[in-house]
TrEMBL record:
Class of the enzyme per the UniProt entry, highest EC level: hydrolase
Highest taxon listed in the record's lineage: Bacteria
Lineage: Bacteria, Bacillati, Actinomycetota, Actinomycetes, Pseudonocardiales
Coiled coil: none
EC numbers: 3.4.-.-
Name assigned to this protein: CPBP family intramembrane glutamic endopeptidase
Domain spans labelled CAAX prenyl protease 2/Lysostaphin resistance protein A-like: 124-215
Species this protein is from: Lentzea kristufekii
GO molecular function: hydrolase activity
Keywords: Hydrolase, Membrane, Transmembrane, Transmembrane helix
Sequence intervals crossing the membrane: 43-65, 86-109, 176-197, 203-224
Tagged with keyword NAD: no
Length: 232
């Protein structure tokens, strides 16, 4: 009902893109798009999207809580603020810099669509909405894909690395709308993030790192759009 369904929708969108007469890298896809013509209605719609993402993560936490798994067990308590922050910065650097290079390579090779992180109009609330969207994406994905799914799969008797790979495939699946590069890049991100969590049992670094990555992508793109020639 959440990210699994998003993965199926992304697969359909990728197939549709492949059926087009133009190559993938000559097509584009936008992530954050206007939801209404009126400015304030658009803002409300953007905030509702963030609320939905927050609720998705909340559902995962509730289902874990129903079986006696508390926030501290998956690493969402506040006992290690400094260590979690440093871990988040390290993860963001490990994924962000190579990930950007991989995206451009995949796009140049025709394996990816040109991804536009935002096509929102330049309104006073645009940056705030993008930051909240980044945080919402990070919260929903890391709680559901890592904290919830890996925990559940291991409870069902799956081996550590089998559960890790399955969660990473799910993460890649709902990015298929970006192309094959989007799938592979997020699969690798899922393996790195999931392994970090399995080793440390700290989920906050993943949520924070993911938020940083998306904020840089969303807000950075709006700042550079139309000002540099190397953005697709």
């Amino acid at each position: 009902m959440t990210l699994g369904l998003s993965g199926l929708r992304s697969l359909v969108r990728l197939i549709d893109s492949l059926l087009q007469p133009t190559p993938l890298n000559q097509q584009s896809v936008a992530i954050n798009v206007p939801q209404a013509r009126a400015d304030l209605l658009d803002l409300v719609a953007q905030l509702l999207g963030v609320l939905q993402l927050a609720a998705w993560g909340g559902i995962g936490l509730y289902l874990l809580w129903r079986t006696g798994i508390k926030l501290r067990v998956i690493g969402l308590d506040g006992t290690r603020k400094l260590a979690d922050s440093l871990g988040a910065l390290g993860l963001a650097a490990i994924i962000g810099i190579p990930g950007l290079a991989f995206y451009f390579a995949a796009w140049a090779l025709g394996l990816n669509l040109a991804v536009q992180p935002s096509t929102l109009d330049n309104q006073w609330w645009m940056s705030l909405a993008l930051i909240l969207a980044a945080a919402g994406n990070a919260w929903a994905e890391e709680v559901l894909v890592v904290g919830y799914l890996i925990t559940r799969l291991q409870q069902l008797g799956w081996r550590q690395y089998t559960a890790l790979f399955a969660a990473a495939v799910l993460r890649g699946s709902y990015h298929l709308y970006q192309g094959f590069g989007g799938f592979v890049g997020n699969l690798v991100m899922g393996l790195v993030f999931g392994l970090y969590w399995q080793r440390t049992r700290r989920l906050w670094p993943l949520v924070i790192a993911h938020t940083i990555l998306d904020v840089v992508a969303f807000v950075g793109y709006t700042m550079l759009r139309g000002k540099v020639s190397w953005l697709p």
